[in-house]
Amino acid sequence: MLLVVDVGNTQTHLGTYDGDELIEHWRFATVRESTADELGAALRNLLALRGLAFGDIDASIVSSTVPQLRPEWTAMARRYLGHSMPLVGPGLKTGMPIRYDNPREIGPDRLVNAVAGYERVGGACVVVDFGTAVTHDVVSAAGEYLGGVIFPGVEISLEALSERAAALPKVDLTPPRGVIGKSTVDAIRAGVLYGFAGMVDGLVGRLHDELGEFTTLATGGLAGAVVPHCSSIDEVDDLLTLKGLRLIWERNQAD
């Protein structure tokens, strides 16, 4: 089986593939101070929950937006899985031409999403990832990575609001009763959910003005909370990044 690992700033999402079939996937909180041994213990426990073990993993690949965890994941693979774990970044073949001023600046998760999005729709697309940041990544009809948009994510915004406005409470993302909040909590929920949905829709509209027609895909841990209030999202795929990791791994086996 193939282990695919997407290390985000807030959550780590990993899964196991048997061929092109996703067998299992899990999410756990990203801890930036984790060592290779701690990651190995976490992986062993997650695999055991599904009756799997290290010996079932034949290969692996990792994408990490947290630089200090990149060597820890690759060291974990060498120590406990017995193989080298490719790291998405410079030197790894993606099959996608990059039209970006400095390709090394692109977050690996953004590139993985772009690869998966283009593979899914077979044409021009924008992938909106609702993670720690909300990113819009743009792929041309010819399969070129063109660039994108980044703004602070939902959780960051909620934390900042709670920290900087002492009288405002922390809230969850339960859908509000309407746009007009009848309580402070509902007012915050309405502002965050409808506000982020409006921001996404506005940016997608501007991208259409600039690029013409494309398919808009959504992914990420908080897509389920915001996308129901958006009008510009064509498809939702919470597993898009894991699929992109599998595709990139496969493209590097042909050499």
Describe the structure.
This protein folds into two domains: 86 residues, 2-Layer Sandwich (Nucleotidyltransferase, domain 5), CATH 3.30.420; 140 residues, Nucleotidyltransferase, domain 5. Helices cover 37% and strands 22% of the residues. It has a five-stranded mixed beta sheet, sandwiched between helices. Strands 3-2-1-4 form a four-stranded mixed beta sheet, with helices on both faces. Strand 8, helix 6 and strand 9 form a beta-alpha-beta unit. The longest helix is centred in the last third of the chain and has 28 residues. The protein is globular, with a radius of gyration of 19 Å. The mean pLDDT is 93.
Summarize the structure.
By secondary structure, the chain is an alpha/beta fold. The protein has helices at residues 36-49, 70-81, 108-121, 154-164, 184-211, 223-226, 240-251; strands at residues 2-7, 11-18, 21-29, 59-64, 125-130, 133-139, 145-152, 215-219, 235-236. The relative contact order is 0.15.
Key words describing this protein structure:
255 residues, alpha/beta, Nucleotidyltransferase, domain 5, 2 domains, 5-stranded mixed beta sheet, 4-stranded mixed beta sheet
